[in-house]
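Researcher: First entry.
Model:
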Amino acid sequence: MPRELSATAETFVARLDRVPLNRFHWRLLILSGLGWMFDAMDVLMLSFLLAPIRGEFKLDATGVGLVASATFVGMFIGAAAAGRLADRYGRRTVFTATLVIFSVGSALSALAPTFETLLAARVIAGLGLGGELPVAATLVSELSPRAQRGRMIVLLESFWAYGTILAGVVAITVVANYGWRWGFAVGALPALYVAYLRRALPESPRFLAEKGRAPEADAVVRRVERAGGGALLTLAPAVAPTRTGRTRIAELWSGRYARRTAMLWILWFGVVLTYYGIFLWIPSILATRGLSEVRSNEFFFLSTLAQVPGYFSAAWLVERIGRKSTLVAYLIGTAASAFMFGNAGTGTDAFVWAALLSFFNLGAWGVVYTYTPELYPTSVRATGSGIAAAVGRVGGIIGPYLTPVLVTAIAVNGTFAVFMALLVITAVVVAVLGEETRGRSLEEIAPEAEAA
């Protein structure tokens, strides 16, 4: 590539990175976040619905575990497939389609006449869920200014907390009065409407540039600039940044990306397994300690309110002390809180440790979604993010089964000690293999030439 074209390409990237936050970014955040919120509501609703589903279909422990794991089977397939498709056909198309698939799966879950059809519906909903999250994070990451990128992704992930809170509200009000089917139904139509609104969002200019569609990419950047008060006048023709033209999965294990991929896969597996192993079973664990089903649901709902400050504190720290340090600190905080909750009763101490568990764990999740897309170049960014998430979903499949098995074998305190150990190991892996990305452009962190 001639030297003058490289300079133009650098100017193109710099323009996108230095645009201040404006109404375009906030609209992107809200439309992405609302889908994230409905996803969270659906997943966390399971923790409230497993008991009534078990009663209606007369399920044993294995059947209950299958209901929980069916969603994660779909999420595993959806994450891997959607990331790959987003690198081939575009972030926006896949970003919208996954929410439609999720809505269909949720509606079918509400209407399922048999246990088998419920399992199939949960897999369909999981396909949308699994594909939605990494692709949304990739799109927001690629459209956010460099100085605010980490904060934007953590704020995006904070919608998971709102979905969790909404799940609690629906469980206490709708499900308690109208049954478990309405728990699934209540999110299907609103999510479909959000998918419709997303049609107005543009494609990622970085994706367009990688595909050789520089004029379209330049038009998107100008749109973002106009939303901030004006567009720069660029006399030179719009030229794409350095391209590889290759999106092979093997690129994830080439050069410097091998170390990053190893770190991310371990991180995702550890965080997802412990998250679902803990949070899907907290209401049931509280019930075994003597609380009624309604009371344990209320306890869990109140403790999840701590997720909101967890996200906002992480959003502040990722641009202050960096991604790596924040993530390690929050993983260690999650580990300590898990151990203490496992040894608590049903009083104030249990509530405090459950709240701290929510605070640190969901703050860590925000950094995970920030960190992951930053570590790969545009050509394989969604693929890398999606496959890392898919590896994590293997942990999501295992987690719902693992917890009741461990509780039977080593009791609740032993089970949470195991989760603590897994979280500590995950934190050590990030500390040893991770690298800091704060304050650097996506092209500086992961140059396209190094993926070739």
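Researcher: Second entry.
Model:
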Amino acid sequence: IDYHTTGDYKPYFYRTHDYGKTWTPIVNGLPADQPSGSFARVIRADTKKGGLLFAGTESSVYVSFDDGDNWQSLMLNLPNTSYRDMTIHDNDLVVGTYGRGLWILDDFSPLRELTSSTASEPVHLFKPGDAVRVRRNVNGDTPFPPEVPHAANPPLGAILYYYLRSKPAGDVTLDVLDASGNVVRRLSSAPIPPLPDPPPAVPDYWLEKPRPMPVEAGLNRINWNIRYDNPPAFTHNYAQVMGAVAGDTPASPEGPLALPGVYTLKLTVDGRTYTQTLTVKNDPRSPASAADLRAQHELQMKLSEGAAEAWDGYKQVTAMRDAVAAVTHANPPADVTSAAAAFDAKLAAVAGTPGTGRRGGGGGFAGAGGPPPPPTFVAVNAALVRQLDTLDFGDMAPTESMTNAYANGCGELKTVVSNWKAINARELTAFNEVLTKNNLQPIAAASPALPVPTCGASPTTSTRSSRRR
């Protein structure tokens, strides 16, 4: 009841348990003397949790966990203003103000789970609300200037809450597992090193800056964007998905989107684990069928895994080149120096050179009057990453040209892995014979051995082709 027109600025909220026969005031914990007024404006009951109430007054927003017996502030970053209306949309609380806009508390699921004993637990991983598999804006927008008023969208994917009674001694991790127990994504509180790329040709204001998991005492929040871990790449691109919201443009490539389904969250704090389940639903606007999504996901995973294998191969070659450089830096005999130079040239030819353009040094294009150079790990990584980016612009079944492109890229990966295995078997053995002859320590073969990929193409469910290649 609102009595402010009579000069009474106190809050008056009431509750009935007998369909209106009797009414009980429920104002304990609500201030009555705020300078801008404390009178009641709106009250709403949660649609899922009995006894969870929200109230708005002329100055503030409040929450009650015991059907109104006690109230506490829910202001967070809200302005001191008049709160005229409220609605609950799924897991979001939406409040309307007088002159200060609409405000949304994204996914207040933890409020439904909070009990008096939660604060006494050392760690509590809250059951998250259902997440929707939504792609970020991938249009080539012209971002709004910073001075133009605009608001950020909710965090992508699943919003995950966890409570820590005290700051943990070590790093905290949160693993997302699929139905088979495979790790889809690992989040961590460890510092995230910056990318080694040169500054992109866009203002830093727009770039997404990945942050580690917060580990402060109390309630913490992080989101999982429904993607697998990003595949390693030698260069990253921000221009592909320039969204018009500050801090919302990630570096590509990104990991493939996970499929709709039920996932397990495993939070590890100081050696102990805590689990919850998370349901991921498909975007209701998606035109793709479940079979289309599975075919696209299968191809994207092959591309991501192939890019990762090419990355691992480059790292193995680089480690061996470092070992060869250590030999030459020790001023060995002339025959060792000569053999080392020849061996290093073969290693460089299979590794490739990062930062040498889209092809990454080798593979794919013929020279003047000759065959194309052999593929390199850098070039294969770049080619597979480009294909992964292309597949990430919408939900769709792979076309025949997409599966053919993958088959070609996988064939180049197979070639470069086979060449690398041959170097370990032949050229390394020959170089080690020269080292042994000069009483020098031989160089160990690369370990673990990279698997030679099998390059069967993913199925396509498009109407133009449903064949396996």
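Model: Note on the second entry: The two ends are 71 Å apart (CA to CA).
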